[in-house]
Amino acid sequence: MRSLFLCILSILSVTTSAQQSQPLSITLENVEYPHPVSFLPINTEGQDLRMAYMDIKSSRPNGSTVMLFHGKNFAGYYWTNVIKGLSETGYRVIVPDQIGFGKSSKALIDYSFHTLATFSKQLLDSLGIKKSIIMGHSMGGMLATRFALMYPATTSQLVLENPIGLEDYRAFVPYATTENMYKTELKTTPESVKKYYQSSYFVEWKPEYDELVRIAAGITGSSDFPRAAKVAALTSQMIYEQPVIHEFHLLKVPVLLLIGTQDKTIVGKARLSLEDQKKHGQYSVLGKQTAAKITNSKLVEFHNAGHIPHLEIAPEFLKALKDNIKP
């Protein structure tokens, strides 16, 4: 297993030790992605932006496409093994960095899942793709759900890997202003990132996960970090204020839920007492509750995984994914 993760994450490393010691730019120019990156020009709120994406065509195409939506603290780089598995199976794989994330523009705009879904639809349209499986992890699961609600004719199947938003955080997490969230983001350090990743994302920490920390924490050394921190605060507020849980029953497409049951993610967890933290974020319960709300759904649970099954138990996850999506 160790060698598998080293293989998955090594491609993310920069090419020289000198580069590794440098702070990262907030648009990750000095981070290698597993495939060539292109950019879609987007104009919104009077700003000219760039949306980064990878477009991976299979050598033996089956005629179907999968679009992957990343989580809030990640970008397209952490989908390496999923891209490989899907491409080998025949899928064309589209992997955008949403505006505000990864190599895309760090725009100071009014962030909404509706807006990000619109940008993602523009990307598919620009590539001439009329229908796609839409797969989202963590925050990407909320976005994928919004996309499927807005564009059911474009969504052949919705796949949700440990999505956040399976609870309405407004009901039990105290409100924080965007300004206060921004001040908190400005305090981010490599040490705080690693501590959060260790406590929140994986059942058992492995050294190869340090590469994920290096990328997420590297931007704190950039002179532009305050801008990235502002975007992080704006998108955190987006998650808090724009739940999708109340609309699961409106989904008109087949839904596959891939859930690591040891996940305990709560957005705004630090604002809760230890007692209240124990009452929420229980994915062993939330997965089943969510599946019951969706008419055409299938739930696959992984009892040996936390928030990121596609990294933590890669072979098992990829098998479940391939077995349950259809070209």
Automatic annotation (TrEMBL):
Span of the signal peptide? 1-18
Which GO MF terms are attached to this record?
monoacylglycerol lipase activity
AB hydrolase-1 domain boundaries: 65-312
Keyword annotations of the record: Signal
Q: Which PANTHER family match?
A: HYDROLASE, PUTATIVE (AFU_ORTHOLOGUE AFUA_2G14860)-RELATED, MONOACYLGLYCEROL LIPASE
Cross-referenced Pfam families:
Abhydrolase_1
Sorted alphabetically, the Gene Ontology cellular component annotations on this record are:
membrane
According to its UniProt entry, the protein's GO biological process terms are: acylglycerol catabolic process
Query: Which chain regions cross the lipid bilayer?
Result: none
Instruction: Identify this protein by name.
Output: Pimeloyl-ACP methyl ester carboxylesterase
Q: Which SUPFAM superfamilies match?
A: alpha/beta-Hydrolases
Lineage: superkingdom: Bacteria
Lineage, highest ranks first? Bacteria, Pseudomonadati, Bacteroidota, Sphingobacteriia, Sphingobacteriales
